[in-house]
Amino acid sequence: MLTVENLNVWFGHPPDRVDAVQDASFTVPQGESFGLVGESGSGKSTILRAIAGLIDTWSGTIAVAGKPQSARKRDRAFFKTVQMVFQDPYASLHPRHSVDAVLSETLRLQGMDDIDRRIARLLDDVGLGRGFCFRYPHQLSGGQRQRVAIARALAAEPRLLLLDEPTSALDVSVQAEILNLLADLRAEHGLTYVMVSHDLAVVGHMCDRLAVMQAGRIVEVMGVTALRQGTAQQEYTRQLIAASRGYARA
Question: How does it assemble (predicted)?
Answer without folding.
Answer: The complex is composed of two ATP-binding proteins (GsiA), two transmembrane proteins (GsiC and GsiD) and a solute-binding protein (GsiB).
